[in-house]
Amino acid sequence: EEPLAQLVERIPELKTLQPSPDQQALPMILSKTGERVDDFFRNVVDIFGHEEITQERLNAKGAVKTSQHVQYSYLILLHRDESPPRVEEYRADSKGNRAEQSGVDKNYAVTSGFALLSIHFSPGNRSDSTFRYLGDEVIGARNAYVVAFAQRPGRAMPMAFLSGDWGTVPILLQGIAWVDKETYQIIKIRTDLLAPRTDFGVDQQTTEVAFTEVQLPDLATSLSLPSEVTVYSVFNGNIFRNRHIYSDYKRFRVSVKIGPQ
Fold first, then answer.
1. Which of 76, 99, 167, 239 has CB atoms 3.0–4.6 Å from 47's, for a disulfide?
2. How far is the C-alpha of 178 from the C-alpha of 148, rounded, in Å?
3. Rg of the Cα atoms in the chain
4. Which residues are bridge partners to 243 per DSSP?
5. How many of the other CB atoms lie within 10 Å of CB of 122?
6. pLDDT in tens, 148-207
7. What's the whole-model pTM score?
8. What is the distance between the alpha carbons of residues 179 and 32, in angstroms, rounded to a whole number?
9. How many CA atoms lie within 13 A of 40 on its CB side?
10. CA pair distance 96, 255, nearest whole angstrom
11. Distance CA 206, CA 109 (A)
12. Measuring CA to CA, how many Å separate 250 from each of 103, 116, 146?
């Protein structure tokens, strides 16, 4: 709801935005983007990939105080036996078992759960948020619609969570999505807290996700999956930045070997 000039000041990615004069194109953009989002959830399969994370603690000027680099196997699992079907993300070892999350014991932030951010644009969830067509922008070589959204307090079902010593807390988000004009695929999304959660010491959490089209050999359609993610957070006066790189996506299958008893 802020004037565009204030949004650009807060969000530098919008500096080359060509503002929209009105909201007439918004219903069309939401409809076609929602179709692509639902296509993803309809076509997604169990996926196995590689994740590299650089966890950093920053000082007040943004310089890195300490950092560590960790690697995981990354799983996206679809539970079609549940109603509605549920998609789950987690880090795993080579056998698909959950891996210990590195960082909490060394006072780094642990961040996860990026493949599903597009769910805010699914037709079944759109009534939970308000939307605003900001304008058009070129991202790399792609022309994109730029759409802002904000979840509605008291109406929206939380889809994101903060975790800490207190446990897990549901949160509401606002954000901006860049939608490819030709394919209506979300190519980039940024989310922020709808409001600071000072009751839990969380002043800010900004997540920026770049998506890439992944064509698995045995699937007819490509899947839009995270390629790079940056999470910046301010918690109890401490500043954290995590960078995630995803690669080498493959279909995940569980094989069972039966041997002699």
1. 76
2. 9
3. 19
4. 54, 230
5. 18
6. 999 999 888 877 777 766 667 888 999 999 999 999 999 999 999 999 988 888 899 999
7. 0.90
8. 10
9. 30
10. 11
11. 13
12. 27, 18, 30
SS3 20: coil
CA distances from 144 to 116, 118, 172, 187 (A): 20, 15, 25, 8
Distance CA 141, CA 151 (A): 30
* Cα separation, 38 vs 34, whole angstroms: 6
Dist CA 40 CA 224 (whole Å): 7
Question: Across-strand partners of 50?
Answer: 73, 247
Enter the tokens of residue 102.
């590195």
Could you give the strand order of the β-sheet that contains 64-79, starting from the edge strand earlier in sequence?
18-19, 129-139, 142-151, 173-180, 186-193, 202-214, 223-235, 238-251, 47-58, 64-79, 86-92
Please list, in sequence order, all residues whose beta carbon lies within 8 angstroms of the beta carbon of residue 22, skipping any fewer than 6 positions away.
none
- Reported as a single tens digit per residue, the pLDDT across 19-56 is 999 999 999 999 999 999 999 888 888 888 999 999 99
Alpha-helical (H) ranges within 2-133 are 4-10, 26-43
In whole angstroms, give the CA distance from residue 212 to residue 171.
Answer: 26
Nearest partner of 161 among 197, 185, 190, 188, judged by Cα: 197
What span, in angstroms and rounded, lies between the C-alpha atoms of 185 and 197?
31
